[in-house]
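Task 17 of the worksheet. Students: predict the tertiary structure of the chain below and write it out as structure tokens. Keep your answer in the requested format; marks are given for formatting as well as content.
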Amino acid sequence: MHPQTGTGLVGHDVYEAIRRDIIFGRLDAGSRLRLERMKAEYGASVSTIREALSRLTTEGLVEAEGQRGFSVAPMSDENLREIADLRILVESHALGLSIEAGDTEWEGAIVSAHHKLHRMEERMEAGDTSVRETWKQYDWEFHQALILACGSRALLEVHGTVFDKYLRYQMRRLTYRGATAAAEHRALLSAALDRDVAAARTILRTHIEGGVADSLRRRA
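Model answer:
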């Protein structure tokens, strides 16, 4: 049985559970994914597990090893840079469209999302690492709220996939940059509310590149 639910999982739930376990590091990068073991872990049939892993292969989170089965996709500095660049490209475009089209409901949504994130940032800065996953969930919600008015479902789906790949690195290798990251989030909120697309895009790029640079510096 899967520890997140205490019950067996089927179909889409299996895919979501495995995907989350990869992103949040419960399944290690490069590790073999043994179907019989996963069958017991997720409470699903081997065929359902294989289908979920095949779907995750198309997203780049799992690698197929021919007759040997599947493994969790490895992580590297080069791949982190590539994902960060792609995130900047996609999110910057969606952010500009959203700022231009967003209404007062959108403004309220980004203010609310930022408030939740800021509360978790305060706890993280105080050393409370127990809220780490909640902090990252609220971080995702804030960045998602910022682009929700972009008017393109396809763009939102692409962003979600790219963000999750970046989040996988953030949970395992990127660190919380404390007051610096919190200040960047506040500045991003202000730029969005001021409808300043150029400033918002600049802050977003600084925010993402700062996280990557901090990760690489700490690993050096």
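Marker's comment: The domain at 12-72 is CATH 1.10.10.10 (Arc Repressor Mutant, subunit A). Confidence is low (pLDDT under 50) at residues 1-8.
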